[in-house]
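Hi V.,

You were right to ask for the full record rather than a summary. Here it is.
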Amino acid sequence: MKYQYLLVLITLISLMGCQSEEEKMQAQITELEKHLEDDPTTEKAQEVLKAYEGYIAQFPEDTKVTPRYLYRAAALEYRMNRFSGATDFLKRAIKEYYSSSNTPKAVIFLGDIYQDKLGNEDNAITVYQALIQAFPGSEEVNAAHKKLPNKLVDLESRIKKMGSQMFDDSTGRIEYRLANNFITSSELYALILPDSPKAPEMLYKGAEIARTIRSYDKALKMYAQVVEEYPESERAPQALFMQAFTLDSDLRQLDKAKALYEKFIADYPEDDFVDDAQILLENLGKDDEEIIRSFTEKNAEAEEEVQ
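Predicted structure:
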């Protein structure tokens, strides 16, 4: 009994120490914020930003304060005209702290940056429409409605239409601006509506287009997101296969491709692409001539066995 009491006491002291450390860092950040208000220089802004990042890294489990600091970090980047940095912080806040009461505020701020600072109306509209679906009871919904044009089709149909407009009918060439907007809107859809049954399909389609325009790192990231976040979806096996194939065929990262082909075969032994994966695995790293020779030898062996 005595030892149990000591254990509880030690645990409580440890928790109090963690809490006091959090409060100490929050007080330091508050002081830095006041200094920035009094003397709004780039140097002081960087100090505050560094303090935010330090707290975020040290206390990711603080679901109350950390998302607020992510939002404030985005606002500070915005003030310094670093809009890509601002969107990165907002996306982290939304993805990592989706249940935070601050999330609708972060979402509409993200849409405003796309619209007002990045000049990307397509992605801004995606954010506003997704916000309305995801957080219908939030205060930000009214503001989002006001920012949308009249006679707008629903979000999913709009993104699908964006995909159909990527290719120039007269030349057959892809319109890279539209393609990138489609990819980003697919990501934004899954970010703001992560529980939508259409999210894995959106991500997969976005990854396909990313691979088409040779944005291979983006494609791999989106394929991986489907596999990791939507493992039960119909697209998960295909996404895993395409990760391996992209590493193999496009990037020639053969060791990584091998590991993913093997994982695909092990995880989805009944999938229609298993035979393809096995063939690709057996011929990994071979040039066309070697592959043809390998097939010829196998066919010859098969004919001999028949005879």
